[in-house]
């Protein structure tokens, strides 16, 4: 692929990410994306085949970039305990995009959610953490963090912050971190909940 082709492909992808985030896939046409990217609709089909193919490429790119950002933040955090990640406009857009992709029923986003659950479960297992159902805990944790992506504008407004800003995201992440490190329910309450679930499961099997 020539440099010009690569540049056009990236421009189309970035335009699609922006519009899919703002409007959703169904309300965004190939012509809308072409206009935003300054290219022809035929060039989009040349590079991606269809709007579905373009969305799949966007999903994969955004997910990979978010994983890379997380890995870099973890590495810097280990090297410098005082490190605080900066949620720049690009990262904020990508988080909003992934939240929107989950709502829009993207197959790629659904598969990526399962990948996140798989990785979280594997981490719990390898770390030897004492929990009755690592898979369910991993799924719940992924849903909770994903929910922040989906509802981040509402959360920001509830906090009196401007949606889509570093300050709003930092307050959300800090609050989530507090919840994860300061359980709101004691072990006794959780034990009772597990007992209720176990009794319900036993009755279904009878």
Q: What features would you describe in this structure?
A:
The structure is a single chain. By secondary structure, the chain is mainly α. Helix content is 78%, strand content 0%. The protein contains 10 helices and no strands. Helix 1 packs across helix 5 (89-103) and helix 6 crosses helix 7 (134-150). The N and C termini lie far apart (62 Å). The mean pLDDT is 83.
Write the layout of secondary structure elements.
Layout (H helix, E strand, L loop, with lengths): L2 H21 L6 H8 L3 H8 L2 H29 L9 H15 L3 H21 L6 H17 L1 H7 L7 H16 L5 H19 L1
Helix pairs in contact: 1-2, 1-4, 1-5, 3-4, 4-5, 4-6, 5-7, 6-7
Offer a few descriptive terms:
206 residues, mainly alpha, 0% strand, globular
How is this structure best summarized?
The chain is mainly alpha-helical and 206 residues long.
**How much strand content do the residues show?**
under 5%
Structural classification: mainly alpha
Helix content: over 70%
Would you count the extended β strands for me? Answer: 0
SSE pattern, N- to C-terminal? HHHHHHHHHH
Report the sheet with the most strands, covering strand number, pairing sense and barrel closure. Answer: none
Low-confidence spans: pLDDT under 50, at least 5 residues? none
Radius of gyration: 20 Å
State the distance separating the first and last CA atoms: 62 Å
Basic shape: globular
- Mean pLDDT across the residues is 83
Number of helices: 10
